[in-house]
Amino acid sequence: MPYYDDDGNELDPASVPMPQMCLMCDKKDIPEEEVLCTLNRLDQLNEPAFKCGAFVSLYGALIDDIIE
Questions:
Q1: Domain map of the chain by residue range?
Q2: Which residue of 5, 22, 57, 63 is surrounded by the most CB atoms within 10 Å?
Q3: CA distance 48 to 60
Q4: What is the largest distance, in Å, between two alpha-carbon atoms of the chain?
Q5: What was the pLDDT predicted at 1?
Q6: What pLDDT shows up at residue 66?
């Protein structure tokens, strides 16, 4: 599925680095969440800190040192 920016340029989600928070998210391997997660990462590509309101830790309680 192609992704495009506001100017119509195609974006490659594989070229967007995966934030540490995403690697520790329980939703990481759920196919139904893939599009929303990818759009969130693409939207915050040039932001200094990554934020995700849908984050669910693999380890239960949230880990404060990865959440900004």
A1: 15-66
A2: 22
A3: 26
A4: 40
A5: 73
A6: 56
